[in-house]
Amino acid sequence: ASASSLKQLPYGLVSVILLAVPMAHLCGQFQVSILWLLPCAAVYCLVAYSDASSSADPRDSVDVAPVSLQLPRWMLEPDVHSVEWFNHISVRLWPKISRIATEAIQENFQAALPSILSPYVTLTKIDFGSRTPCLSGIKVFDGSEREDQLIMDLDFSYMSDFQIDVGLVTSVGWLPPLLSLSEIQISGTVRVMLDPLVHMEPIVGGVKISLLHAPTIDFRLHLLSLLDLMDVYLVNYAANKILQRAIRDVCVWPKSIDSKVANEMAVQLLKGPAPTGMLRVRVVGATSLVKADIIGSSDPYCILQIPSAALLPDVLGQHRVQRFQTAVVNNNLNPRWSETFEFITYEPSQEPDPALFRDLPCGMAKKAAKNPYRYLHITVMDKDLHIHDDFLGELDIDLKPIMNSKEVVELNRPLTRTKTGSIQLELSWTPFTEDLASSVLSAQKHIRKRQSSISDKRELTLSREVIGVLVVHLRRATRLQPSDRMLTVDPYCVLSLSQVQETSSIRQRTLNPVWEETFVLPLRDPVYDKFVATLYDKKNGSCLGLVEVRMLDILESRTRTSSVWLLQNARSGELYMDLTVKLIK
Fold first, then answer.
1. CB of 443 within 8 A of CB of 465?
2. Confidence band, pLDDT 50/70/90 cuts, at residue 440
């Protein structure tokens, strides 16, 4: 046997004796023979002796572990870095952190106790000591999976001289503490995930903290300052099992402790909330409009707009607003348009900051600040050739009743901020569905029916209705090749689908641009349409490569398509995108 195991054996015998006295008393109370305790004590001594031998100090054994295993990870792995500077800072800050933690424990201890024990139990001592937690290494992942998150692995250890005593409330003078917790030792690897990273204050949308493995924990727990319960094998074994299970159920990877930093609504706006449905607005006409021209009557037209998925300013300082305009009807105070427009609707879970909408039109800003996705703003204007167009009236329509109705809603509303005039509308809303299989079949039947009813090919092209949307999350591109001798390019991406184009922001002087931008493109024919993403250089307008995807291939996947796309018509390069299809029911 090793020397350390022999040293620990008397302490085990003492603990057995201290436990045997109350157990012998219980045997007498229940009239059970005390001889039953002897085999139990013998088994306990053997188990404790064998456990002490297995956990002996490695320095007392013949086989000494290699020195390399005792070195910190940053000396063995090139992607792990030393953070000794953090340990120096923590030493300076530890007294202040200890004082704050002490006050927090004192405030919450009594509230955590059951009401029966609260009058009799109190904290008699809290001392965090002078030893601080230490970081022995940090590993930061390169972000090849997602550009909107940051992952770090921190190797930590805490060999503390911490002590906290719990005593009884009594008027009899000094009594030893009932329980004393001290010498806490814990070590392991904690993973910190900053997810998502956003383009506004406070930069970090949320923090997730987890342990890669169950940490190594040891501590001392004294009873009445005499018996260390951790020297009792059964108590030590049970306490370690309970702690390991509790930690594993709460924060061992993949489980984590989550904390939100940024406002949830702001994160949703920046990440691009998922569209919920399609709103079709048919502008029938208007009556009794105001005469705005000196010669003649008025030349009215309508502007319809709804805030889109991201009303926050993007990198170009612009706002994304869905906006459509009717044709101009010349010299008519009772115009008839009969034009149909399709809007994509969103439903945020929280109300945003009204300051986000201060740059929008006055009438629209008041409604949008309350709920930006539930109001349709219509402005009627008079077209003038050589001066600014005249204002003829406006109207804000709450879309919630429209969304709750399953039929077409006909409205005849008077215009506001004008003397006279009203407008006639027909509105209907259809939600999107996640069941792509049934939606594709219904879409195909709808397209065949329309093709059979329309003989003119040009008329067929113009009559195609929006039956869904393609949500594109443009992440980044890598290894772009310039077309000339320049070392870098100013890339931007043009996304096109169903004759609709969206353009990303421009990234300056880089061959590995990062966008993290979300776009929503209308889908008219899920069978024959193709989605094309083309990269251009702003300097000379040259094409840096493109990606072409059939919508049918995306629909057959039935789920979100997230992958790396090799650039066509380019010597090298990859484009990272997430593609999601949503079709109407």
1. no
2. low
